[in-house]
Amino acid sequence: MQLQEKKQHYTFTEYETLEQETGERFLYYHGEVFAMAGTTLRHNKIVRNLWSYLQEILAEQKCEVFSENVKLELAPNAYYVYPDILLTCHSEDISDDEQTFIKYPSLIAEVLSESTQSYDMQDKKAWYFKIPTLQYYLLIFPKKPRVEVFERNGDFWIFRFFENLTDNINLEKLNLKLPLNVIYKGINF
Asked: What Gene Ontology terms describe what this protein does at the molecular function level (predicted)?
């Protein structure tokens, strides 16, 4: 058997085929693919806690919540990432369940890790803020109770942070309150 040389540049179609054939997730940036790293149990618990809570709260609304395995399109056929949590209420995102990515999120949450923290807090945030439908961006710290919340206010973003497990994050535009003790349920600090 002869080994094939690793491809250096992929079209979007080749990228989607690569993910389907390998069963792996890759970040896609202008033809380059980057393998997604594994994560910690703590990271996974926090994502699961948030997903479960949002899923339950939004069950009556026409919204969908996805975790870690659904792509977000940042630039058509050019830039795709996998946020930890994506919430969308947009009909185009919800109507076709064969679609492999979301275009119109209302909320994005990232659980920070040492390897991705600066990327999530800077580069991704700058791209996320360009999404016209995005109302909230949450950065969740796994090693201490801290959630940074960015909320769209017209052309500006309001920044708040929460550090007490008794705090509730009011996400008024989505008509929900997000308790910190739910996000960090089962996490020992």
From this structure: endonuclease activity
